[in-house]
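Input record, target 12 of the design panel.
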């Protein structure tokens, strides 16, 4: 397990997702206020990039733009079809303005 800095918090737009490729992992990092959440940037339905999707900040969910599956950003669980399997969740946080993600 290792912790990596992907960017500064100010580099992220509140309520939007951004993709980072780190050590072979495709990460979808979402800023909601001063919090950051991170899931794998691979929809479990057909491996599409979740970071291209719309974030629902209040619900802490993201919608895959390809077929509309919605995922809970805190658990990775799908909230709607056509996805039926969860996406991987990564522990993420902000330290001194740096966005850090724990890889495993
Ligand atoms: S690829 Fe994401 S819902 Fe189909």
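The sequence produced for target 12 reads:
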């Amino acid at each position: 397990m290792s912790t990596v800095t992907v960017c500064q918090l100010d580099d992220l737009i509140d309520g939007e997702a951004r993709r980072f490729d780190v050590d072979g992992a495709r990460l979808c990092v979402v800023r909601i206020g001063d919090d950051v959440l991170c899931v794998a940037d691979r929809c479990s339905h057909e491996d599409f990039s979740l970071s291209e999707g719309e974030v629902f900040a209040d619900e802490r969910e993201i919608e895959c733009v390809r077929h509309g599956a919605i995922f809970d950003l805190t658990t990775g669980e799908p909230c709607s079809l056509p996805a039926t399997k969860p996406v991987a969740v990564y522990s993420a946080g902000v330290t001194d303005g740096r966005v850090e993600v724990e890889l495993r």
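The two ends are 4 Å apart (CA to CA).
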